[in-house]
Amino acid sequence: MEHSPLNPAEKFDASRAGEYARQSRIALAGYDACHELAACVLAASLGNGVPARILVVGVGGTAQEIILLSALEPAWTFVGVDPSPSMLETATEHLKANGLLDRTQLLLGTVDDLPNDAAYDAATLIGVLHHVQGDDHKRSLLRSIQARLKPDAPLIVAANHYAYAEQPFLLKVWGERWRQQGATSDEVKAKLGKILQGADPPRSEEAVQGLLHDAGFGDCQRFFSSLFWGAWVTSKVA
After folding, report:
1. d(CA 14, CA 16)
2. Which helix (H) or strand (E) holds 68?
3. CA nearest 135: which of 193, 198, 207, 204?
4. Order of strands, edge to edge, in the sheet holding 221-226?
5. What is the pTM of this model?
């Protein structure tokens, strides 16, 4: 079955959702540090102790964004969207365990399913962009987020941003990362084969910036990097 360009939910089924917390921390060295810094970046952007409504796009899996943002800023509330039922269910379990369901509205769907008004003080898009096929669909997603943000609202974007096949050394390092965590040689080969399928990361940091400019955001500033991964903060152009 082919994956739909705007809805990569098909590959995030129950089995993948169940292993997501562990797998993501291996695949992305510094997973927790990236999320911790993202929380600090948003707090620095919006100000301490200021009530804010945060849109979390692709909340499924760990819901780590909400867990860390809520701990740093108790006055913030959240709306999380995810197109995968299994990933959203797993996120709900994590939020419930952390007592955060009363501060969070969860929606099974996409940003386009939200009201088209500028209702959010900030947004996060972490681990999503490289799963969206084609620049046109990436721009569409970013424009949908932009339309729902207040003027000058910050956006955190974190994703892989190299064409994997053009970075053979980084792929080799990434394979060693898996071996370091106990994967066998055959498992490493399978992981390397899997990363080359079903994802379409922007080809460079400049490509990420271009997509953001096209969608109505300003210049971005990178605050985290790990192999293929980068994390940036930008803001809606008023």
Report:
1. 6
2. helix 64-72
3. 207
4. 104-108, 76-82, 52-57, 122-126, 154-160, 229-235, 221-226
5. 0.91
Q: Which of the four pLDDT bands, split at 50, 70 and 90, describes residue 68?
A: very high
pLDDT at 11: 52
Q: How many CA atoms lie within 13 A of 186 on its CB side?
A: 0
Distance CA 210, CA 37 (A): 23
Let me know how long the chain is. Answer: 238
What is the sign of the dihedral through the CA atoms of 85, 91, 96 and 100?
A: negative
User: Do residues 126 and 53 make contact, with C-beta atoms less than 8 angstroms apart?
Assistant: no
At what angle are helices 64-72 and 31-46 packed, to 10 degrees? 40
Question: Domain coordinates of the chain in residue numbers?
Answer: 8-162+201-235, 163-200
What average pLDDT does the segment 191-204 reach? 87
Maximum Cα–Cα distance for the chain, whole Å? Answer: 51
CATH T-level assignment (fold) for domain 8-162+201-235: Rossmann fold (3.40.50)
pLDDT in tens, 112-163: 999 999 899 999 999 999 999 999 999 999 999 999 999 999 999 999 999 9
Written as six digits, the tokens of 70 are 């809520």
State phi, psi for 8 to the nearest 5 degrees.
-80, 15
Of the pLDDT bands very low, low, confident and very high (cuts 50, 70, 90), residue 8 is low
